[in-house]
Design brief:
The structure holds two protein chains of two kinds.
Chain A: E1 6-10, H1 14-26, E2 30-34, H2 40-46, E3 51-55, H3 63-72, E4 79-83, H4 88-96, E5 101-104, H5 109-126, E6 135-138, E7 141-144, E8 149-152, E9 155-158, H6 161-172, E10 177-179, H7 180-187, H8 196-210, E11 220-223, E12 227-230
Parallel strand pairs in A: 1-2, 1-3, 3-4, 4-5
Antiparallel strand pairs in A: 6-7, 7-8, 8-9, 10-12, 11-12
Helix pairs in contact in A: 6-8
Chain B: H1 2-46, H2 51-127, H3 132-163, E1 172-175, H4 176-189, E2 195-199, E3 207-210, H5 212-228, E4 234-244, E5 247-254, H6 288-298, E6 302-306, E7 315-321
Parallel strand pairs in B: 2-4
Antiparallel strand pairs in B: 1-3, 4-5, 5-7, 6-7
Helix pairs in contact in B: 1-2, 2-3, 4-5, 5-6
Classes of the chains: A alpha/beta, B alpha+beta.
Amino acid sequence: MKKNKNILLVEDDPSLADGLTINLEAAGYNIVHIARGTEVMKEFANGIFDLVLMDIMLPEKDGITLCKEIRATGSTTPVLFISARSETEERIEAILSGGDDFIAKPFDVDELKVRIHGIFRRIAWLNSDNTSPNEFNFDKCHVNFAQYLARGPKGEFKLTQKECLVLKYLIEREGKVVSRDQLLDAVWGYDVYPSNRTIDNIILKLRKIFEPDQKHPKYFETIRGVGYKFSVN
Amino acid sequence: MNTPKLTSKTAFAIFIILAFLLISQTIWWITFMENLMEEKNSTALELGASAELIEEFARESRSRHFMLLMEGMFFLILIILGAWLIFNALKKTRELNLRQQNFILAVTHELKTPLTSIKLFLNSLQSIEISTDKKNEIIPKIEENVNRLQKLIENILNIGNIERNDFRLNSKKLNFTEFLNECCQNLTSQNYQKNLEVSYSPGETFFINADKQELGFAIDAILENSIKYNESEKIKISLSLSKRDNEIVLQFKDNGIGVLPEETDKIFERFYRIGSELTRAHVGTGIGLYLVREIVNAHNGKVEAFSEGEQKGLTVKISLPEYEKK
């Protein structure tokens, strides 16, 4: 029997929390609701959650700070932000804090469900054994997608979920040029695009891990005006 | 929001340049005068001037030094005063900008959150098979959110009227004692989640000349504020009505979170809210008490707040002129 996914809902408005709980429970998710930002870390440590659905404006501690705290524990549990603000700056801030997606109020419940489904689909793809193995070796480098670990000439590094997804996408298309838009679409999805700068930062980190000489990248090549190409030879 | 920051930097730079110029010029003048006097003294000595004349030159030199120093001090004080005034003006502008930014944030949040709730509840009523009991729970929640939106829109419209000086009262003779009793009964009949105790014992009958709707709005806003900013297990609000000279004084006293004594005047300022909007513990926009002040002022009254400090409750006092037969 398929197990229902557990969602930690962090929302201070009781009406909105009720509305979300009714609709998401009807969609087959288990919801644990907390209203105060200060309770998140305690609840997060006590339970096993597949997703954190969190408002940015929260009493005492805001969602962005909480997401950073969650990521600081080493957790890769996806975080989907809800916010009344929808400016690009806030979306970028949310994604840079370690968030996976962002939905602006007022939203349709169908859109929310599609976004949640999208996050779970991307995680399933990241952890899939069918399409590509969970581990990848090239030259003296090693990647474990299941454990979010990467080993290069400078040692072992922990990857974030997004870094893992970008790496996996490039590896699966070895030798082919991948545009930034393709990466944004595959890794972030929909219209939550953080900015090309975020992709560039991730590539910089991957080069730092794997490239013997970052100034003359051997594996992660920049294709000017288009995107990136991963190749081993 | 960068403009005031930039302006204050520019003002600071101008102040530093002016102060530097003034001090340099004063030093230059003093040195120049010193040299000139020395030259004069030596020429006088060479020409065999009398001791009295040399003493006279020295007195003149001291007097000029003093005059230059005083002039320099005077302009320096003027510059410091100007800089202080500019700094204060910029500080106020920055505070207002920050409050406006917070207000926009709060209004955005306060408009979009109930709207999202309504959409979610409607979706659950339309698309999900739910029990009649659950439906009966959802419908009042939709109503509650619609009322929340309506109140916010009314507040914003009222602010607009005040800003355009288009705020008119429809004042009539009002039995204040009875009206206050009605307001309290309305409040206790509303479905508040928190445990609420409103105490008001109508005593002597007082009449005022007031716009019932606007005054009712102001009283509701104060009562709601007492409920909203309250973290006690049992919310207690006591109201009293008394007469002082020709004024009727309405006093609200709650056991809420209170404010710092120095902040009591600020709570009636437009867009005033405590803390950052991102981590706000209490919903609101910072216009409720501003509207209270404007409504009371329009009635030729006065509103004041008193608090002994945080977590020590808040007392709000409204003084309104007693009704006079014309």
